[in-house]
Design goal:
The chain is mainly beta and about 120 residues long. It has strands spanning about 5, 10, 20-25, 35-40, 45-50, 60, 70-75, 80-85, 90-100, 115, 120-125. Strands 2, 4, 5, 6, 9, 10 and 11 form a seven-stranded mixed β-sheet that branches. Strands 1-3-8-7 form a four-stranded antiparallel β-sheet, with no helix packed on it.
Length: about 120
């Protein structure tokens, strides 16, 4: 079955950086917009960022603007989330999700075709 796989999570100190990767198994990403979501224990899943299929449109949650950068390399069939200036509030499981639709213009939507299993990001001193 087609799947997405996240990697790059781990433990980092406040102010540090991590780069998350999202890669598919069984299909190519070049026609999919990709979103990153995160979910902390006891909290609802929230949208973090989205990138259009060709990378021309980028979307960020207000909480991460200026700190996170989403990018993609369709030749490598991967999407990345560069996270800088990390804060403890960024601690969560991060998921990538693929949609054949465009990045949602408003909100983050639920019409995603594929989800990954998530990668844990912990920001702590």
């Amino acid at each position: 079955q087609w799947q997405l796989v996240e990697s790059g999570g781990g433990l980092v100190r406040p102010g540090g950086s991590l780069r998350l990767s999202c890669a598919p198994s069984g299909f190519t990403l070049d026609e999919y917009a990709i979103s990153w979501f995160r979910q902390a224990p006891g909290k609802e899943r929230e949208g973090v960022s989205c990138i259009s299929s060709r990378g021309g449109r980028l979307k960020y949650a207000d909480s991460v603007k200026g700190r996170f950068t989403i990018s993609r390399d369709n030749a490598k069939n991967a999407v990345y989330l560069q996270m800088n200036s990390l804060k403890p509030e960024d601690t969560a499981v991060y998921y990538c999700a693929a949609t054949f639709r465009a990045c949602p213009a408003t909100g983050w939507g639920t019409a995603y075709d594929y989800w990954g299993q998530g990668t844990q990001v912990t920001v702590s001193s």
